[in-house]
Amino acid sequence: MKADKEMGCEQVRNMSADWLNDRLDNMERREIDNHLAGCSGCQEEFAMDKQLWANLGKMRVPEPEESMRVNFYQMLDEFKEAEKEKESFSLQYIIEKIREFVLPQWTIQVAFSLLLVGLGWVIGRKTSPETTKAVAYKEQIETLASQVEDMKSTMMLSLIENPSATERLRAVSYTSDIENADERVIEALFTTLNNDDNDNVRLVTLEALTQYADNPAVREGLVKSLLVQDSPMVQVGLADIMVKLQEKRSVKVLRKLLKKEGLNDLVKTKIEQSIKDLS
Amino acid sequence: MNTLTDNSLMLRVKAGDLDKMGLLFERYNRPLFGFFYHMTHNADASEDLVQNVFYRMLKYRHAFTGDGEFRTWMYHLGRNVLNDSVKQNKSANHFDVNELADRIGGGTLADESFEKQQDKDFLHKAMAGLSAEYREVLILSRFQEMKYDEIAKVLNINEGTVKVRVHRALGELKKKFFTNESR
């Protein structure tokens, strides 16, 4: 009997962790309850376990500092950034390589030169043997000339968004050969004038646009651009052009510009002078 | 609702939507901090460890298959991070168990018998006196409220071993706690 009880005690005590963790089925629970009812030693043990378990549950954990969250999100951002770089690096690198291989920068120029040589050759061959059909040839030449102009427009439009400022300057300079710029060219020039982040490109663009000043839309665009510009060089350039074109409509805008905050003193004097000259 | 389970969030992270890790952080930073705090009793170190676990989950996101529970995987990584950190700091005795017990036991006991405070200190000391192996099973079952089968997966051992370990850990803790108290 005594031996039975001792076995029972050991078995029961082995189950105390499960009892605390609430992992016993009903039968096991009942057996333990029965045993505890008649065994003060185990009762004491279980009471101790229970107290310990409850105390454990009361153990406090301090709040983590807010910096933990901040640091986490910073780490996440940095991680995302690094991943993006890794990805775009490999992808961009491959695209760049292919592009360089298939279409080097100079190919456009070479193609253009070849075309011109070709045209010259065609024109030469057509014109030299028979001068009698001069009128017909003249027509042909005109057609060819306008085709060249078209080519230049296309080249200009394709180059003007190039990330290199030198290429953009080149694009703008092509317009000196384009007598009758179409809407697309004008629009591209204005976009550059108002948005390009390089002062030199904007100045050259301004110059290029003045050659189309006969076009009322261009004049209007130039007047409007006065308020958009923030570089003193371009502001002064525009004011000069307004005087040169005797663009009276600009006086109002120039006055508005005078009120703009942080206006360069030199520009101020220049604009005041221009207003005087115009009115 | 289904899209918001831990596993689906982690699978989204795996697929490249790294921001979803933010939601998992919000869910688990405190329990994880608690786990490390009970293991090390050092709040600063615990914060670093939490950060480390989330970094590893991002870095090794491709290793998450979604077959098991996210939480299990997270604690599994958490244990590794802690072990690495213990190894790294071994020379400095950073998380050395004995040092930990000294740190907790010392100083706070004033002559006045704040019984509750004493109880807490004794318990902290008793916990710190346990081996890391015993301490972690108690923490996982008591504080993280994990079932034995989940603990088994976190620790990579079988369920029977967990059961025995919890039982022994509790016995050991009881011995330490009540002998301390009666002292």
Automatic annotation (TrEMBL), chain A:
A Pfam family that the UniProt record links to this protein: HEAT_2
InterPro entries: Anti_sigma_zinc_sf, ARM-like, ARM-type_fold, Znf_put
SUPFAM superfamilies according to UniProt: ARM repeat
Top-level division of the source organism's lineage: Bacteria
Domain named Putative zinc-finger: residues: 9-43
Keyword entries, A-Z: Membrane, Transmembrane, Transmembrane helix
Residues spanning the membrane: 106-124
Protein name: HEAT repeat domain-containing protein
Organism: Dyadobacter luticola
